[in-house]
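Progress against Task 2.4 (sequence-to-structure conversion) is shown through the following example record, which the project officer requested during the mid-term review.
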Amino acid sequence: MNILLLTSEFAPANGGIGTYAREIAIAAAELGADVKLIAPDYGHDNRSEDRSLPFDIRRFRGGLHTMRDLPGKILMARGHVAARRFDVVHAVDWPFFIPVALSRALTQARILMTVHGTEINETQTPLKRLAVRFAGVFGPRTSIAANSRFTRDLFRQRFSVDSGRIHAIPLGTSDFWFGNRNARSATRETYGIAADRIVVVTVARLTRRKGHLLTLSALSALSPELRRRMTWLVIGPDGEADYVAELHGLAAKTDCDIRFLGRLSNEQIRDIYGASDFFCLTGLPESSGRVEGFGLVYLEAGAAGLPGLATDVGGVPDAVIGGETGLLVPPSLDAIAQAIATLATNEATRSALAEGAMAHARRLSWKRCAADTYGLTSIPATEVASCSPLTDREPHALRQPMRAAFSGLRKA
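Structure tokens generated for the chain above:
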């Protein structure tokens, strides 16, 4: 199978779309597809890094997308689509939707577009809707892949498209996150964390919609004895300056051990996962139209053996299965505080959920994602058996008892 992917985000830029483009291309190549990927160069010479990838990558001059880039992307897409015979032409993100749609007359390939969540709302302005309709972006030859059931349903609400042409295909977990890491004791020693501390870790940009302030408020609501036993490691770059200042200011007033570690490498994050007890990210619904389409970071933490504490927003329930891989609660202070206390004080609960989190992360592999997305069938039969959509999966034998035990948290 010959696959052409076009993306407006890729390494060295960091972001979920870039991760998706890279990992699904690698997985498709490993499954035997001939993959060509088109991505911006960000003004850098990326040839050394690109040569290490198992697919053909072609860079174009540019960076993160702006509307003035659209004419150039249209010409570029037409040139690549017409250059050879492809079985699939895949617009990885919305800046390539119109360019790929306007190129479909040049190919007999299946046209595929992936929606990640926020862009569905952002394309609802009259001008953008007119452009989408005029270009026939979601025409009859186009299939749409959504990164979660939430994103699929949001797309169905916003666009009148035959439901049979849009499919929820959850993202995957890289083998990297299952890989070797430093010993728990060694990492704790590096960061000066005592062996008896309860360590909770958050990995996300410090921005309002990620809910760091809500987590901080929940930690502050714990009993003084429990709060003083805990260490919260906050990993991620700064977002809005006023929000970051408020977060640091309030953290300085609590007697909980809170550490802002900034941006770290994936290797450092993996080591910290191994030294932590559970993962926590309490995202918030946002009126601006931005949404949490999936929640890949929960899977990555789960691969390292961490149960997740998550709020039930957007597509997060596909990444964290409440009562099986972590605790899924409403975005309220009381519910989050109760969930933190449960995970911090009940080692048996943490252990059971950690086992479920690792199993879920293994089920949601990138090879499974690529196979479902492109119709590749060369993954092992045992892996195919575990790849059924989340909507069709029967509950795990242990899920019902666990869910019953934590039903109070979800209702809080």
